[in-house]
Amino acid sequence: MNTSFLYHAFGVCEQECSRVRYEDKSIIFEVQTRSEKLRCPCCKSRHFIRSGSTIRRFRGVPIGHKPVFLEMKVQRLECKDCHCIRQENIHFITGKRSYTNRLARLVVELSRLGTIKDVAHFLHLSWDTVKDIQKRYLQRHYGCPDLSELEYIGIDEFAVAKGHVYKTIVVNLLTGQVVYIGDGKGADSLDVFWKKLKKSDAVIKAVATDLSPAFVSAVMTNIPEATLVFDHFHVVKLMNDALDEIRRSVYREEKDLNKRKVFKGTRWLLLCNGKDIFDNQFKSRLDNALKLNEPLMKAYYLKESLKEIWTQVNKEQAIKELDAWIEQAYQAKIPKLTTFANTLKAHKWGVLAWYDYHISTGRLEGINNKIKTMKRQAYGYRDQRFFELKILAMHEKNYAFVG
């Protein structure tokens, strides 16, 4: 058979085909290495003695829907120069794999278009074989992200499973690449990342995170020269939680059934952006609820004015706006608002750091949503390392293999 066909079809260039047969609905090529291509696997010498042979079968790229196997007569060589006794090297496979490199590349290409199950069914391979090919490819290309170019990073956690099982991710905010995944959501989940960061000699200018004490202490301890920026989304979320608690307490304490009916079902109206309520019926219902309870009204308008902190012309104006807001929250004399005002005052420096570096954890929230979608598509992952590798490759859209 023409050797160029073996090369272009299966990536075989040093072997020759002596026979082709059809067996059990499969096409089998009987190949063996040409004599002039045989070399000692250790020193590449041509001075050797053939010391027996064995038959090995490798899975190749299918022809149509017919599975293809390369049945090779593998020589055992005894070198006269280095005296090693080993089987000849087989260039078209990796290690002791039972499939060719060309088939592995085909699996990688098809994995961009379908699930592991689809690819395995189409190529007549096992699910574990396709998954193993994907995992080795992802490990080789994305297993060790480069940290030397990092300047702006974001830190956040996401839930892996029920029962408070979390993982912490670190994202390059300029590229959207996940550069690290740690177990848990405490400060110790980032220990390995700090060690790798130190070895990479990267200079981190700013870090975006939520108000988690664990993340704050970890950043300030390991990279104190970096500016810590608290994400404004999480600050607003804390205010929304306080407003929702006030709404619940108002509903519980109200004895008038008619007033309780007005408060019931107003959670969405209170928490959404007031400028987005265009429906007159909804706006009237919100106004009625606010008129019936003064603490709820104060909390709602403070929630609306909180966003003004991030819309000022410069940092000096933002400081004045933040101080005025905290003072108004104290004057309202509502315990939940007082607690939130204390939290905001304690983290004032990190909130205002947004004016030094306009970064947030918005990219991380988007990545967390993609991770949730990926878990649902795969119905969960048994191999956590494979799961992490898919997350590390998520920024490359073409290589985000479906589970």
From TrEMBL:
InterPro entries in alphabetical order: Transpos_ISL3, Transposase_DDE, Transposase_HTH, Transposase_Znf
Signal peptide start and end residues: none
Transposase IS204/IS1001/IS1096/IS1165 zinc-finger domain sequence ranges: 39-82
Transposase IS204/IS1001/IS1096/IS1165 DDE domain ranges (all copies): 153-391
Residues of the Transposase IS204/IS1001/IS1096/IS1165 helix-turn-helix domain: 96-137
PANTHER family documented for this protein: TRANSPOSASE FOR INSERTION SEQUENCE ELEMENT IS1557
Record-given protein name: Transposase
Species assigned in the record: Bacteroides luti
